[in-house]
């Protein structure tokens, strides 16, 4: 069985990732990935993608056909367009009903995996010491705060460990995002001088061409 310290850290990390990415985005990604697997909705999703591709093709053909120049062809394409549109709407409604049930199921699983342990573990292991502080290193009030609410005096309670994990995860996440933004901004700044250097060079070439052309006209 994994250590309770690791379990708390993993739960807080997963919760932070979900909050950072967004539950809706995760639902969309999982739904798209599942529909490529052999599940009941995969066939309907594949048929919808096929119908949508045919619909877009017919729509482009319809837009490129004039009803005045070739009415018979335009009417035939329009009937095909309307038929595919109606079929696409029916498939979309069926998938939306399946998607609503999938979102409810996924929300329940996400709650059981993340939010439920966040509240259940601190309550169940409230009296369990996560770590023991070195004796005499901290004053009494500090030991009392660190062991709050029901941990043994001189220990790190599960609530304090949970708070420490959340703080570290947020700090590391912010640091990584800041480094990524700094890297992207430095690359963008490095690309700007190269363009500014090319501009005077092109202007000088253009000026030289104009001077050469004027001299040629004078000689002529």
UniProtKB/TrEMBL annotation:
GO terms for molecular function: protein-membrane adaptor activity. InterPro entries: Get1, Get1_fungi, Helix_hairpin_bin_sf. Gene3D superfamilies: Helix hairpin bin (1.10.287.660). Residues 192-220 are annotated as: Disordered. Residues 173-220 are cytoplasmic. It comes from Beauveria asiatica. This is GET complex subunit get1. It is found in: Endoplasmic reticulum membrane. One of its GO terms (biological process) is tail-anchored membrane protein insertion into ER membrane. Residues 206-220 have a biased composition (Basic and acidic residues). The gene is GET1. Belongs to the WRB/GET1 family. GO terms for cellular component: endoplasmic reticulum membrane; GET complex. Keywords: Coiled coil, Endoplasmic reticulum, Membrane, Transmembrane, Transmembrane helix, Transport. Residues 1-4 are lumenal. It is a multi-pass membrane protein.
